[in-house]
Description:
The structure holds two protein chains of two kinds.
Chain A: H1 2-54, H2 57-64, H3 66-72, H4 78-101, H5 107-149, H6 154-176, H7 181-206, H8 208-219, H9 222-226
Chain B: H1 11-23, E1 28-36, H2 41-55, E2 68-69, H3 71-78, H4 86-90, H5 92-102, E3 107-114, H6 125-142, H7 144-147, E4 157-159, E5 164-166, H8 175-187, H9 189-195, H10 198-208, H11 219-235, H12 240-261, H13 267-283, H14 285-293
Parallel strand pairs in B: 1-3, 1-5, 3-4
Antiparallel strand pairs in B: 1-2
Helix pairs in contact in B: 2-6, 2-13, 6-12, 8-12, 11-12, 11-14
Amino acid sequence: MRVMIVQGLQQAYQNLFHMFAEFLPRFVVMLVIILSGLLVAYALRYLVRTTLRLTKLDRLSDEAGASRVLRMAALPSMTELLSRSIFWISLAGFILVGLSVLNIAGLQEQVSRFLHLLPEIVIAMLILFFGLIIANFLSRAALLAAVNAGYTSPKTLSWSIRFVIWILAITMALEELSVARETVIAAFSIVFGALMLGLAIAFGLGGQQLARDFLERNLGDRKKEKTEEPQPL
Amino acid sequence: MVSATTTNVDANWIANLLRPAYKQEFQFVAPLYTRGKYQGLLARTLLYPMSRAVFGCRIREMYSDEWGFSRQLALDCESQNVWKNEEIRARPEAWMAITAMASGYKCCQSFMGPKVAPSGPAPDLVEAIRQTVGNLFWCLEKFESFWVGRSGSDAITTFGSEHDLIEEEPPANSEKIFDLFRSGVEELESILASILTPETHARIKEIAALDAAKFRFGPALWVRTLYEFAAAYHRGVMARNHVIQALVPLYRGQLYSFLLEQANSSPEEIEADTESLCREFENQKPYLVEQWKAKS
């Protein structure tokens, strides 16, 4: 009995030793991968930050109104945001590769799925980012044009443009991530179609006078309108 | 250079534009016209006073369709790699005038007489502001080293009458102009907030709330507003074209204020007011420099 217990303990000790002997080199490899990843991520962040500063992305972002949105969301500047994103995405990638070396059951599959999805996540983020910039730029341009032309409800026009571009960008980002692809496309078609139909009905029926004024102003006698302001030059 | 749309050009115009350059060695010749009381107000209340205060040279009609220049100035301008810029292509005459000033060339102005407006629709105010004010702000950046340290302004040689204003009927339905100003201040609140300082923005909102009959856009506030717009354009707080377009409702406010104040003024009184506005621009120039250098 005593011999059996000793043998059992010896066996357990050997198994444990064997496991450690097998796990430790993998753990060291994982640490090496993560540390290398940290260095690579820092290098990438520096590279991206320098490149973006040279290309004056922050100025473009200011002009397009994206910086204001970032400030409202208490986020750093566009250059800082993108370089930090690159840092964390690459570090996360290296951490996952490092974890996969440990050969933990089930984890490898999740890691490979994440790595497979990583480029799509980056592309989806870029789509949302450019969607935000374009929406801000175009909605502001529409607002200024409508105000200067003396149209009624210029903010409604501006917000409609912003909303449509946001919806489009979000749909494209979800499509890129293959999230419920068919549902997203169907939802987009329904929302977009309903919005346009709603606007057309509201404009045509609810705002008959407005529609008449708008058409008269744009297709009617334009010369008559312009005589109100003296010749500027 | 003579505009193809000007219908009353005669031999005297050509002589008046060419003679100073040909006989008297002037490098840039700006025109002067007989103007109606309400004609060319963008030039009289914005372009002339601001360009005079900033660049220190009293050229009244820097943004006109006719001007004269010497061969030397033409060669100088032609050799510069700026002709693809939209601002230059739209209004090359002002850029040539400022280049002449900055290069120390002799500038003068020559009286042409009345200018008959081309037939067809009047030029669009938004487009006129986009072209001229866009060009002026662009030149402010381009010639920064020339104007930042300057103060005051110098008179230039004038051939013929320096100003000639004639009475004319006020524009009809001018209340519409005030409505456009008021709605612009309200609708563009967030845009104006990112261009103007909080104090100036608050004062503009205050006057926009006034009754139309009591409305007044004072010269001090107008100058301050323009200088802040120029600085915002320089800092690129948003797309530059948008900064310029956001000025349109405020110019309409200034225009309405002018129409109210000068309804019964004689041409001499209007001229005195223009001179006083020019001095306001010159007095406040340090504010422009301060705003221009802030965060740049």
